[in-house]
Amino acid sequence: MDRLVEIFKLIRPRFYNKLTWLLVSSGIVFLSPSIIIIILNHFIEKEFHFSIIGSSDTLIGFSLIILGIAYNVGFYLIENKNNSSLESDRRIFNRLNEILSEQDINSFLDALIANELISHDTNDSISNFIDKCNLTENKFSKSKLEGAKNKVIEKLEYLMDFVLAEFFSHPNLTVTDMNVMRPELNIDRGGSPTEENNKKHIKLKADLRERAFSFEKAYQVYRNQARKYLQE
After folding, report:
1. 167-226, pLDDT tens digit by residue?
2. pTM, whole model, 2 decimals?
3. Residue 133 in contact with residue 189, Cβ under 8 Å?
4. How large is the angle between the packed helices 120-133 and 57-99, nearest 10 degrees?
5. 171: which residues sit within 8 A by CB, 6+ positions away?
6. Are 111 and 117 in contact (CB under 8 A)?
């Protein structure tokens, strides 16, 4: 359906009404031939026993008129459906964006990658965002936009699985509503300064960055698809 609408958009500015009027006008011509054609046909029939007005002219005329009207009505219905779907998709995007905006995402990733921490409020917002994205009522009509949203959820869940397994509260933090990544392995957070702990911490940090950047990339694709389809 999306492809059909795009094709119609290409032909509409130049041919939409013109094509309708051409078909209808042609049909009317077939239904009501001019006086000259009628007189000429009468003369030819009388002299040569041959008619230049075919018996199928009425059928052709009606067919052209019906085709023109059907084209006009069909395009009108398709366009209205597309406009309705577009408005619905905009509402869905705004609803999800209120839960977790692009600025929220950037702040979340900055804290996660640079400081290896996440707030409880951010954790709750992400959980709410994932839950709302999975609701049927928040499914985009645009297949590419819906696919991009699903990829975001896939990558975000992959990242949050890591956060759930490797992030914990820490008594030395001045802010108590934060979880940090394996503080016992991080010398900056009171962890034992052993080579084994350092290796484990480096490995965890690499895993965290890979998951975070993978999610960030998927989110940027989602935002680009939203800009492409929702600003038409």
Report:
1. 998 766 655 688 999 988 988 888 888 999 999 999 999 999 999 999 999 999 999 999
2. 0.66
3. no
4. 160
5. none
6. yes
